[in-house]
Amino acid sequence: MQTSQLPRAISLAAVLALGVVGSVSAQQMSGGGYVALVPKPAVTSETPDGRVLQMVGVDGIVFGDEESNPFGMATQSCSGTVVMAADGSDLMAKGYCDGVDLEGDVWWISWEETAAGGSWNLLGGTGKFEGVSGGGQTSRVAEWPDGRYVVRWDGTWTMK
Known about the structure:
Layout: H1 6-24, E1 27-39, E2 43-46, E3 52-64, E4 74-84, E5 92-100, E6 106-114, E7 117-125, E8 133-143, E9 149-159
Antiparallel strand pairs: 1-3, 1-9, 2-3, 3-4, 4-5, 5-6, 6-7, 7-8, 8-9
């Protein structure tokens, strides 16, 4: 290699190295959307102190506000437990969901809901969601008499 070509070769190697580093670095993202949910039959029981427990489950479709949102167009299946006082006050619910996108990649979240609103946290995933972390807030925006409902979700996450 000629001496005059050495700086070009070093520059090219540096650009290629930056490209490789850029492709494996984490990407901070934020966004939101909606989840349309259909409940499964709940199993209700009462505790000795009079509280009501409901084992609940829902299935739905996740929509992102923007087409580039990695969680959009995923199916979602959730389960959890609702605990409330006998009069329906002091609502608290926690559980887990899994989502599967159109490419077959899976993500898992935990969720929590109280009368004041809800939150979600990413637990991990496969494929493009491997090593994902983050979370956000949820709120119900529509409910139908048959139990179907829509949740608004917003948050921030890091894709590895």
